[in-house]
């Protein structure tokens, strides 16, 4: 099975997986750094608590200069020291407002107690105080930084992706337009030549039955050229009856397939009108029928239903073919997707473009079951 889209999807999946691994690794390293700094701050607080205990003990053998230097070295970690009754004895690196300072400190103490940053200070056997502290501003900023950077990275990737997709779509549109116009132009010359040959053959008395058959083929080529000429620019819309469109398109296909394929059209008696480009919509129905015939290996049945409600008409093309796995319900419309050994995989892409971009409708796989068949649904606005 040739599936260009699957190959592209694998490359995208690998790229996404590598990106996730890199981002995950970055977050792991950053969080590990924050964790290590948090442990380092706790070690500092324990030393600070020991220094505070030493000051309270008033031991003459202590180097008070060193102890005071340790105490004064904390310039960034918010600290509250309270006794067993929650009476605040000392605060450090906390900006206290002038209005209701006691109430503010009580609330701050309760906030600190909810965390795990608590160190017990034994002043003697019967007296104990508690040192509560919060992460320093530096540690808080560092803990937020990986997430902020991750958000910036995601935003950058999203913008780059949208810009790339926009550029890619514009490029695809140019390719579609150029290819379609060139195809229509290339068909024009041999069609004109064939029409001239028909006139010459008629003057030479060639059988009119043969000329009539040739005329049908030339008319068919003219229709194909007209279809390609309309791709790439917004085609003109005309009011048509969808019932007739489906009947004519399926009748054309019915005459050109073997008797092993049964094509049946189910349309309501009520005439259903819609604004559409007739040559392009006929092309859509023919493409869906051809895909269905390929999926059935040239043997089975195709049922085409027309259903309506107050605002829309629904065209269902149901076959008895191989079916489509659910994971491919959307990818079947991507360029390059094909299950055939030969082919560009552009048929359903073209169908989607005609239905959704030119007729403001929708086309999707309504239902499918492996080895039982598939139903494609087209939604169009009623006129």
Spell out the CATH superfamily of the largest domain. Answer: Histidine kinase-like ATPase, C-terminal domain
Helical content stands at 40-55%
Strand content: 15-25%
Number of strands: 11
Number of domains: 3
Structure report:
The protein has three domains: about 130 residues, no CATH class; about 80 residues; about 150 residues, Heat Shock Protein 90 (2-Layer Sandwich). It has a five-stranded mixed β-sheet with strand order 6-8-9-11-10. With about 375 residues, it is of the alpha+beta class. Keywords: ATP-binding, Kinase, Membrane, Nucleotide-binding, Phosphoprotein, Transferase, Transmembrane, Transmembrane helix, Two-component regulatory system. One of its GO terms (molecular function) is protein histidine kinase activity. It catalyses: ATP + protein L-histidine = ADP + protein N-phospho-L-histidine. It is an enzyme of class 2 (transferase).
